[in-house]
Write a structure and sequence with these properties.
Distance between the termini: 64 Å
Radius of gyration: 23 Å
Oligomer: single chain
Strand content: 25-35%
Structural class: mainly beta
Number of strands: 18
Number of helices: 1
Shape: globular
Helix content: under 10%
Order of helices and strands: HEEEEEEEEEEEEEEEEEE
Length: 294
């Protein structure tokens, strides 16, 4: 008799547990004048997305782009189309089971920065990441600032006049009419995470040298699909200044997929008028399935 009574009691206990689980919400971005992710009225229904929510950001909702000043809650899904999400803090990370960046959508960072700021990285942790054709992760020219009348910024800064910045490789020295020294190479080749340095400026004319490229870190336990563009290249340099160094793109995944429309680059840029060229950036793909680097 005691066994016969155990079944209904267990069913009641399990039913109670299921009923107590929090409901997963669907959140749609409706921000207009305010771009802050953490403003409750920027979402429909009202309230900042919470753990396990499904989030959609598109041009059919709010007219404003999105600013992330800190890490949001861990989501179930994030779908972005025709809107830009800007990461403004080095430690900010988007965590979601699935992330889909559609046509017209951009993940980016704050503008190029000075020494000591460390804010310019796009960081995503997920199971599956899909970058569709026309979607972008664009941190080009979002690394360290180029010099303005002075040396560039960053570990591999080019010096005034016209030294090219370094990162994945050393920056080039200025030509015979310039005396700028190229910047050193730095970062970890098989796990690059740092931004590119800025080129050396010119003391004669008020021209800003090229900014370095920013950093992208995608950590996926499943598949990363790239049909759009990931760009961590340096910016362009003005006359008589040094080129900027490319940034870093580090992709950790089980499977990397995509088509010929997919582009991944972290190029350095050329110096101008005998300014030294910037060093290239670093791109690394770690496959966790067999611990192989590409």
């Amino acid at each position: 008799h005691s066994r016969r009574g155990a079944g209904p009691s267990l069913w009641l206990f399990i039913s109670t547990l299921v009923l107590c689980l929090p409901a997963r919400a669907e959140k749609v971005w409706v921000g207009s004048s305010d771009s802050n992710w953490f403003t409750a009225t920027n979402w429909a229904p009202n309230g900042v997305p919470g753990n396990g929510d499904d989030v959609t950001i598109s041009s059919t909702g709010g007219t404003a782009n999105v600013l992330l000043t800190n890490s949001p809650a861990a989501l179930n899904s994030l779908i972005v189309s025709n809107r830009t999400i800007a990461f403004s803090n080095w430690m900010t990370v988007v965590t979601s089971t699935t992330v889909t960046i559609k046509n017209g959508a951009i993940l980016t960072t704050a503008p190029a920065m000075f020494d000591g700021q460390m804010s310019n990285r796009v960081q995503v942790v997920c199971a599956d990441f899909v970058l569709e054709n026309g979607g972008q992760v664009d941190v080009s020219a979002k690394g360290y600032r180029g010099g303005d009348y002075w040396n560039g910024n960053g570990t591999g800064r080019g010096t005034v006049r016209g030294g090219g910045a370094g990162h994945g490789g050393r920056g080039g020295d200025g030509g015979s009419q310039m005396n700028g020294i190229g910047g050193v190479a730095y970062d970890v080749a098989n796990a690059p995470t740092l931004i590119g340095s800025g080129g050396g400026g010119d003391t004669v004319t008020n021209r800003v040298a090229a900014h370095g490229g920013g950093a992208v870190l995608i950590n996926a336990s499943g598949t990363v699909t790239i049909n759009g563009t990931i760009n961590a290249s340096a910016g362009s340099s003005a006359a008589y200044t040094g080129g900027g160094a490319g940034g870093s793109i580090y992709i950790i995944c089980n499977t990397l997929a995509g088509t010929t429309s997919g582009v991944v680059r972290a190029n350095g840029t050329a110096g101008q008028n005998e300014g030294g060229n910037g060093g290239g950036g670093m791109i690394e793909d770690l496959r966790v399935s067999n611990n192989s680097h590409y």
